[in-house]
Design brief:
4-stranded antiparallel beta sheet, alpha+beta, 3-stranded antiparallel beta sheet
Length: 145
Amino acid sequence: MFTQLRQDITSRGQRIRHDIARTSSDIRHARDEYHLAKAERPRFVTRVGDLVARYHGVTLYRDRVERGRQAHSLVGVRATVSESADRRTDLGTVRDVCLTITGPDWEWTVPTAAVFSPRKVRAFAALINSHAAARSGNGSLLVGA
């Protein structure tokens, strides 16, 4: 009877420790995402209406994409997302996500921190692809006219 009671207390303690570790991990992730969002706020944009989105130093405008001092037109641009296999850490399973933006004669690879959700990277890549497709469509219409 005492051994069963001890096992129940031990397993509850382990579950509580696991829940505390998971909660502190979630709080760290939320804090990191807040700081990233704060750092990614647009500053000194000449026309805010042209800004579509920002992610890890890459800024998407309606007609171009910028990273640092490099700016390229969206014509022929394609964004893809690659994910590494899951790996175990002390606080759970982590997956590294990498955003690759490819143009006609250039390529950017943007590795993301493993704590961020891959859906944000996928959403940003989808935004780039949709704006690039619209831009390429408009460009081809202008060339044919």
